[in-house]
Amino acid sequence: MRRLRTRIALIAFGVVLLAAPLLVRQPYHQSILVFIGINALAATGLNLLMGYAGQVSLGHAAFLGIGGYASAVLTVNHGANPWLAMIAGIALTCLVAWIIGIPTLRLHGHYLAIATLGFGMIVYVVFVEWRGLTGGQSGIPGVPELSIAGVSLDTHVRFYYLVWACVYLATIASANIASSRPGRALRAISSSELAAQTAGINTARYKLQVFVLSAGLASLAGSMFVHYINFANPEPFNFSYSIELVVMAVLGGLGNIWGPAVGAGVITTLGQVLQPMGKLLGDLLGRTVSDLDVPAFGLILVLILIFLPRGVTTSLSALAQRRRRPSEAA
Amino acid sequence: MAVMENSEPILEMRGLTKRFGGLVAVDGVDLSLSRALITAIIGPNGAGKTTIFNMLSGVLRPTAGTIHFRGRRIEGAPPYAIAALGIARTFQNVQLFEGMSVLETVMIGRHTRTRSGLLGAALGLPGSAREERAGRAICIEALEFVGLATRAEDEATSLPFGQQRLVELARATVAQPQVLLLDEPAAGLNTRERTELARLIAGLPQRGITPLLVDHDMDLVMDISNRVSVLNHGRKIAEGPPRQVQSDPGVIEAYLGEEAAAC
Asked: In this structure, are B249 and B220 located in the same domain?
């Protein structure tokens, strides 16, 4: 019953994704859809980690960065095939996540959050300071376009279809995991590690696996990002982007397979709206007001945690079900 | 399977000891379980019963002593490994998982008997799906055993406390453990629920499960146990068939002493 509903929703989601570029004609709006897709991909990985397994990461931007820089360095400096570079980036990111995960995932709650935060900051500093490899603050320009079977993905719409195909597949994978042995094991871990362990679940191994998987998805998103904007620099992979990803996952609804797309949609759009507003406010006050989005996202996170702790998607569907019940009973 | 007496113990503790700083919670306990017999550990509060369970299930590492399970030493092994070997447990304060249906909760119990991994599940491989269907059937059967099949889709934590215990029992049985540790299974149950629980526990040996229970509730223990061990202050003070233990002067003193102190 629940599976059937999920399947129908997935088909509907696919139709909407296919049709969206036909309705959205402005290049600027199309590019926002691409950025939403990239964020949704990363947030899907974070949702597996936070929503299913209950482990917090405040350093996920670093995994996008490692993937992004791997793509940029390998394609620009070494002329590698972009797809192979992407796969190499994912492999490297997974390896880093695995090494980082072994000690940090022994920590719980706040300690894990602080450890991942520290990791994210260190990686950011490496991006800035390892100039020989990363070009420092000036970054790596000229990252080539992706192409599939000779067709260059050099338009917003073409890139849109690539990114959202990945999001779509990642969403199906999340749905599959949710109702499976490992998915239940992850949810058990997030509820009570002790009870999960005594039920025979190797909690350390599962946490590590899901951490690596979610880092791999982030890496894929990071590679797509640098290919899309043809440029890699440290700024997009900083601490505040890690927080943005967390806000997307929480806002969308932790543990909900639709949460990442919804959260990414809201936060990305809001970021685009807030940027010009910040500039406008700056002009009015006669000085630079930067990053109006950071306090706004902070406020959203606080409000969501107070009023909709299960996130927008989950709360709305619970509301819809409550509405439906009386009519079913009648 | 017929109930048979087997001289070879399935689970055997020798000199089992646990110290917390200066406090000796369990002090050199020898205890063995015979296959298919119901064994109980009783004793006043703080006698060390739950500490023994925590050592048997790997939650605590013994300070000294050994635990043999089917001839193999298991003391100090991690809980998931002990569960995988075939020792399941329930908790005094029921441990269910937030947001899971009754059926999903019971399916957690199948974890050690199934194999499908994160990638296989993500890709929706056919092996994963087959295993899922087979597991589901076994779990529904277990829910029928405890009389909760109609509640399969309800959220487990929304059930009344007595039924939550039964969910936990079903979860433990689908793991097809050789030994099942039941930590105060009757606590918080009403008389009717208790009778039902006693019936279910008495039926476990026929399913190839050897129960070890810990309880305050003398009535339940005396009714269904084949052997009873009595603990007091971490030491075993008596052991034997229920009736014999019940009339043991040392046991009476331990229990009356506690009641006198409580007055």
From this structure: yes
